[in-house]
Design brief:
membrane, mainly alpha, Na/Glc_symporter_sf, Sodium:solute symporter family protein, 24 helices, Na/solute_symporter, transmembrane helix
């Protein structure tokens, strides 16, 4: 077993597999060229002209999240922690997605802002806008590096190329179609990629279950493993959080992951919000994350379960979990399962699915970075009052610059054995304090512009401080447990600093806060239309959200 574990990971693809991959890339680039024909203004390039139907933006919404981090990271978590990984979907995603659709999107879409930082500018002014714009841009480059690194690992597993060459080739692929057609190219490719991902991972899950003797066989194998039957229960998730106390672990998951990290990510992350803002109406914008919540409920079964299977069926992963010296990490879980179970042909489909997920994630990072950098940083602070054609022409060049930056940050990602550890730390730095500022500013009209930027800075500093304490061993928790605590600290510190600063500084006049603060905004402007193209019970955001709530409660009960 040890000698096998030391062999480099290689996928035995043949001509059939490479043909399928080539065919997929033809479709991807073709969509980019077609989307290019519809781009005539900067709004077309960065927000698809606000013209897309809800089903398209809904699938793109979830596909943008179904990137390399979701596939590799969650399967790694499945192999490492077992059923507790389900919390990232049913606690740490779906409730926040519903909140975004029902509560936040009316403010975003109704105000006609082009980005989340632009909303910050209107609510709090230039200082908060600049802080948020810079932090968001930095976050997207760092996260794009994760997607790019994992895309390069596929190239390496297929061809054995060195990391730097794999990174350059992978970056060129994503750059080609994102720079061509902007957000429309990214969104329509994301819809295609969603179906490719599902078609690729479903057979892998079924083959894996067949390998271990079905669900009952998987239960037996995991029960007999060193980690034991606790990996079959989602609650209390002690291994995931690092807390030995069950109550503290549950609080960490519900408050740290389910509230602060999840709401911070889904409601303020422009990567996701941008897809909803490309919708053709308020109703479609509200339905976008709610439509995305339906497949989000089921994705764990084709992502987490394969990771759990790899943890007991792939020899290298079994050795890793037993504490033996191997040259694989938990990030390799799904690749090992593909290598061991899929015949040629199906392997090509699975590889296309993985590449689709990596490109969807990175393209989402690049397209949102384009919008924020061009509108919120370049146009606002560097080169102002130029014709729209100037900012449109910048789009492809900004994409190139962001891709080069992602190549550099990919090397940071390469140092983590479980990329979810890294990702959750980034979310605690960037998303948790932003959510605190947003939610307080939206419901408390007294919050001032000075509080907007100072709360963000203080909250981020608190999360970084908790991370440093975890790295130096002062806080003894798992890496993801530390991020849960860091997110909570960022949220609390942001709120406290914002309240204190607001009490000593002057707020904006109420007339300038209409459409930005809940109590000052006319209710009719926050309601979705139910006529014309938005008519029909199946287009009512509230009803769709209620159905999702019932389903997520049922799933949590079944797998508790």
């Amino acid at each position: 077993m040890i000698s096998l574990a030391q062999e480099p990971l290689r996928l035995d693809a043949n001509a059939v597999d490479y043909t399928l991959l080539a065919l997929y890339f033809v479709f991807v680039l073709g969509i980019g060229f077609l989307a290019r024909r519809s781009v005539s203004t900067s709004l077309d390039f960065f927000l698809s002209g606000r013209s897309l139907p809800a089903w398209v933006t809904g699938l793109a919404f979830i596909a943008a999240n179904l990137g390399a981090i979701e596939i590799i990271g969650m399967s790694a978590n499945g192999a490492n922690y077992g059923m507790a990984t389900m919390h990232y979907f049913w606690v740490g995603a779906v409730p926040a997605m519903l909140f975004l659709g029902l509560v936040m999107m009316p403010f975003y879409y109704g105000s006609k802002v082009r980005s989340v930082p632009e909303f910050m500018n209107r609510r709090f002014g230039k200082a908060a806008h600049l802080v948020n714009g810079i932090s968001f841009a930095l976050a997207q480059i760092l996260i794009a590096g994760i997607n790019l690194f994992l895309l390069a690992t596929i190239v390496d597993a297929l061809l054995g190329w060195p990391l730097w060459l794999s990174l350059v080739v992978a970056a060129t692929i994503v750059l080609s179609y994102t720079a061509l057609g902007g957000l429309s190219a990214a969104i329509y490719n994301e819809v295609l990629q969603f179906f490719v991902i599902v078609a690729a991972l479903t057979p892998l899950t079924l083959a894996g279950l067949n390998r271990v003797g079905g669900w009952s066989g998987l239960v037996e194998e995991i029960t007999a493993s060193p980690q034991g039957a606790k990996q079959l229960s989602a609650w209390p998730g002690n291994d995931l959080t690092g807390f030995t106390n069950d109550i503290l672990s549950v609080f960490g998951i519900v408050l740290g992951l389910g509230f602060v990290l999840a709401f911070g990510y889904w409601t303020t992350n422009f990567v996701e919000v941008q897809r909803a803002m490309a919708s053709k109406s308020m109703s479609a914008a509200m339905r976008t994350p709610i439509i995305g919540a339906f497949p989000k409920l089921l994705i764990p079964f084709i992502v987490v379960i394969p990771g759990m299977i790899a943890g007991v069926a792939a020899s290298e992963m079994v050795a890793l979990k037993a504490g033996e010296d191997t040259n694989v990490t938990y990030n390799d879980a799904i690749l090992l399962l593909m290598r061991d179970l899929l015949p040629n042909g199906l392997l090509g489909v699975a590889l296309a699915g993985l590449l689709a997920s990596f490109m969807a994630g990175m393209a989402a990072n690049l397209s949102s970075f384009n919008t924020v950098f061009t509108y919120d940083l370049w146009q606002t602070y560097i080169v102002r009052d130029r014709p729209d054609s100037y900012y449109l022409s910048m789009g492809p060049w900004v994409t190139v610059g962001a891709t080069v930056g992602a190549v550099g940050t990919a090397y940071i990602a390469s140092g983590y054995t479980n990329l979810m550890d890294y990702l959750q730390q980034l979310f605690s730095f960037f998303n948790a304090p932003l959510f605190a500022t947003f939610i307080l500013g939206m419901y408390w009209k007294r919050m001032t512009p000075h509080a907007g930027w100072s709360g963000l800075v203080a909250g981020t500093a608190a999360a970084v401080g908790v991370f440093a304490l975890g790295e130096t061993g002062v806080i003894e928790l798992s890496a993801q447990g530390t991020s849960f605590v860091g997110a909570g600290a960022a949220f609390v510190v942001d709120i406290v600093v914002s309240v204190v600063v607001s009490l000593f500084t002057r707020p904006k006049p109420e007339s300038e806060l209409v459409g930005l603060v809940h109590s000052l905004t006319p209710r009719e402007s926050l309601r979705a239309s139910h006529t014309g193209e938005d008519a029909g019970w199946y287009r009512r955001p509230g009803l769709l959200a209620a159905i999702v709530v019932v389903l997520v409660i049922v799933l949590n009960i079944i797998f508790a």
